[in-house]
Write a structure and sequence with these properties.
Blueprint: E1 7-9, H1 11-16, E2 21-28, H2 37-57, H3 66-77, H4 83-92, H5 103-115, E3 119-123, E4 131-135, E5 141-143, E6 149-151, E7 157-160, E8 165-168, E9 172-173, E10 185-192, H6 198-215, E11 220-228
Parallel strand pairs: 1-4
Antiparallel strand pairs: 2-10, 2-11, 3-10, 4-7, 5-6, 7-8, 8-9
Length: 243
């Protein structure tokens, strides 16, 4: 499905994060009830699969998987830890249940746990397309989900709509475009550092779409797109010098 210009990337993002991928899923006609019986059934099945996977990987956990390493390295560069990995371990290793949330947020969180790929959710009616993928600067700031205004610092990935920043990797989605009980049009946005890969992002978006359709079978998909940053080119203009 073509992007249609709804998701664009700056040259700064492409050059700062070669090999990274972002993705977007837009669905209309969705619902966001406090509980979905179909999603609850899927959640119990996911918990079983995660625990079986946790038993297989054992002591080493999922650290050896390329996607997890990519996120862990990205967060470590900024002095932080990858929270989705910790949430996965809580279910897969410690045996805890997936927390209950409003259905659209739960559908997103379930896909995150399955694939360990970072995702932000937004009420599309509160956003103005296109969404621009860019690099944070020292002066950038926005209001987080909890209402706190946050200064970002430089060097993180962020997404910006026609009004302001709507999310960043390190601090998550904003308050203005948050998903709520009345959300009927939704935008899910994915950030993936180099090493995750475009196919993994697309498969993740397909999983997320399947989860949303459990909640709202009548929902329509208006966009499912990925946007990769090209890998850095190797300068071959000079020949190797033999000694």
């Amino acid at each position: 499905m073509p992007n249609g210009g709804a998701l664009v990337a700056t040259d700064a993002w492409k050059s700062t994060f070669p090999g990274a991928v972002v993705g977007a899923l837009v669905m209309i006609g969705v619902r966001n009830p406090e509980r979905s019986a179909a999603l609850e059934t899927q959640k119990r099945e996911l918990e079983e699969r995660l625990r079986a996977r946790g038993a297989r990987v054992g002591r080493d956990g999922v650290d050896s998987e390329p996607a997890v390493r990519a996120y862990v390295d990205y967060y470590r560069t900024h002095g932080k830890t990858y929270h989705v990995k910790a949430q996965w371990e809580s279910v897969a290793v410690k045996g805890r249940s997936i927390p209950s949330r409003a259905a659209l947020v739960e559908a997103m969180f379930m896909a995150e746990l399955k694939n360990l790929i970072l995702t932000a959710g937004h009420d599309l009616a509160a956003a103005t397309l296109p969404v621009r993928v860019d690099v944070t600067r020292e002066e950038d700031e926005y209001v987080l989900m909890n209402g706190t205004e946050r200064s970002l610092g430089a060097g993180d990935m962020m997404m910006v709509d026609g009004e302001s920043i709507i999310s960043s990797v390190l601090y998550g989605p904003d308050r203005r475009t948050r998903i709520g009980p009345e959300t009927r049009e939704v935008l899910f946005a994915v950030y993936a550092p180099a090493g995750v890969g475009e196919k993994a992002v697309r498969d993740h978006l397909e999983d997320l779409r399947s989860n949303v359709l459990l909640v709202a079978p009548e929902a329509e998909t208006r966009l499912l797109a990925t946007l990769p940053a090209p890998l850095a080119r190797v300068d071959r203009s000079q020949s190797d010098v033999s000694m």
